[in-house]
Design goal:
The protein is built from 3 helices and 4 strands, in the order βαβαβαβ. The chain is an alpha/beta fold and 106 residues long. A 4-stranded parallel beta sheet has the order 3-2-1-4, sandwiched between helices.
Length: 106
């Protein structure tokens, strides 16, 4: 499998409630050659189960999940950069964007 052209890095911190809405918005994106790296801070707030359910419901979406305790968002993003196979990476504070179309064809 070839690496996608875009890796989207999203750090999560105790936010499984809001994460469900963000994951649902992925189906609205019009650009398809992406992967999502969810970088969880090892919390037990239900994020793991939410991601697993979403992956089962949308197997065509490439979503990778990493759970590891780290000191903050920048450490999580650095972890994601080390994991991302894509040449282009985007660190996203998804809480600012809600359900907008974030990636699309112009």
């Amino acid at each position: 499998m070839l690496a996608p052209t875009l890796s989207i890095l999203v750090a999560t911190w105790n936010c499984s409630g809001q994460l469900a809405e963000f994951l649902a918005s992925l189906a609205e994106q019009t650009y398809a050659d992406w992967e999502l790296l969810l970088l969880d801070n090892a919390f037990s707030d239900g994020t793991a189960e939410l991601v697993q359910r979403h992956q089962q419901a949308f197997p065509e979406q490439r979503i990778l999940w990493s759970s590891q305790s780290d000191p903050g968002i920048y450490d999580a993003w650095n972890r994601g950069l080390a994991l991302a196979p894509s040449a282009a990476c985007w660190t996203l504070n998804w809480a600012k964007y809600g359900r907008r179309k974030l990636i699309g064809l112009a």
